[in-house]
Write the structure tokens for this entry.
Amino acid sequence: MAAFKDNSGVYAGKGRWRTCCYYTDWQGIRRKHERRGFKTKHDALAYEKEFLSKANRDINMSFDAFIDIYLENLKPQIKLNTYYSKEFTINRHIRPYFKNKTLSEITPTDILMWQNELLLKRDEYGKAYAMTTLRTIQNQMNGRYKNPTICDEKTLREASEILKKAKIVCGDYLEVLHEYAQPGDFIFLDPPYIPVTEWGDFKRYTKEQFYEEDQRNLANEVKRLQKLGCYIILTNSNHTLVHELYGDFKIDVIPTKRAISSKSSSRTGEDAIVTAFPDARRVVVKDVILPEQVKLYPATRFMGSKSKLLSEILAVANNFEYKSVLDLFSGSGIVGYMFKCLGKKVISNDYMAMSATFTKAMVENSSVILPIEEAKELLVKKAEPDHFVEDRFAGLYFSNDDNKLIDILRANIWAMEDEYKRAIAMTALIRACTKKRPRGLFTYVGLGEKYNDGRRDLQISMEQQFLENVDAVNRAVFDNGCNNISVWGDAMSVSGKKPDLVYIDPPYYSPLSDNEYVRRYHFVEGLARDWKGVEFQDNTKTKKFKSYPTPFSSRDGAEAAFDSLFKKYKNSILIVSYSSNSMPTKEEMIEIMERYKAHVEVVPVDYTYFFGNQKDAKSHRNEVQEYLFVGY
Ligand SMILES: C[S@@+](CC[C@H](N)C(=O)[O-])C[C@H]1O[C@@H](n2cnc3c(N)ncnc32)[C@H](O)[C@@H]1O
């Protein structure tokens, strides 16, 4: 038997104790049992001893422990009222006498002495117990084997059907809630009651006892759950401490009949039922229909693209009045484009030149297109190109002929005068290169035969890809009547007039995943900035360059960056995309946002990631809960 200081998870630094032991269950299977949260080592060891006796169905278990097992087994077999009266009789007249004896120690003489004691016993009016009372008490000591229900097949099958959909967890309630509670969940809590009278000591329900401090921790947990958006009902005794701890919530007091009381007159008690529902949500998520124009944005496989979450983002945004939007981490540019389609003034920003090129071509640009004849001209060699791609990336990503064509296109595109035509041509070249790479990535080298699944995108020539993409980008160009802006800059230092709504979708930080955009797209990012000002990493196989620094590449950095952005945009409506496997955690994000926003809400969105970039998430590989944090 052993007890240990518990210094992990919810008990870290709280000086609590835990036990861990092995036992053999009734099927002969060896199992591990752990229990946490004990105030003293003594409590932990006492619990373990009692548990092992019970688990092993040991003849040396205490009578007290045996009665617990007996009552537990009896309860589902008889009517509840019958059970309560039995429980009362046992607790009042039998348990106190043999409580501290082990089963093997109880002798026939003990039983005789107990019977004598009952005969001599007087009630509060000095009267001896009636014979019927004595018989009722005595009957509890005898088994009832008339028509015992050995196997209640119907009930068992019904229960089995229901339990197929359930997950049953045996664990510390705080840990279970931290792991499983989600916004919108209904949670019922029936903790050990705060004792109201000596005989109403419900603490016995848990051997490790549930102290006042535990009641306070529980109340804090209820507050956390309510903030998270859960619906909670909690029962306890009608004690002043319950009113103190749950004063902010609705408390209903209802009379209850208790089986445990020495006087029949005081066998009634009062239960307090605490109802803690989340603040009425003000953010309503109603179905939306996306503007038709959004469909003209060329489809993208950009990592972390929210192209599949546009309806949810719009449904949340629809709760507010706003004219201008800042899409701070624009990535593929699709979110900013959607807001443009809604007639909003949009500022799209990203620190990657390729992202800024996309939004220059399709968000900022309201009227310029690149006629196909002009685009065809770009495929023809004019001046001698610099052969940069042909030399540096020979044999890495594309054939020599394609590399030569890329160099010709680069030379011609950079020579273009009109910034929007240039952006359209460069967007088309980036898209052509990405589409001609299986999986659209530049993290591995080789001409992609391994992943060539015969898709059209991989079959058609670089020329055709380029021209088709010029056409696709041209079709996305339109005027929404606003002066929209594309910015190539660091999100932390974007300047200008504060927008009405800021959409924040940074790389999600998680120790399990890689959120490096530059590493994945270094080749096309290089095209977009003509490899100017980058730090080459010549010794790499992929011939990439150094990723740009971003605070979102570490947990602490991400936390500080969110704080700084929420502070900077504290007067704007904030919508933040974040996921359940990221850090800061959901609770921490709420806490940071609440520093600057009076109202913070979390809207969960079910979402399965396109990229399987989790290194170690086993069967739940891509099952991530996506959240929209809304601050206003
Ligand atoms: C999750 S993606 C955004 C996806 C985008 N909302 C979409 O739907 O395509 C994150 C983006 O943040 C950009 N990024 C990372 N750190 C940045 C920073 N410090 N400043 C600006 N952009 C940054 C990355 O380049 C990447 O495009």
Remarks:
- The CA atoms of residues 359 and 594 lie 32 Å apart.
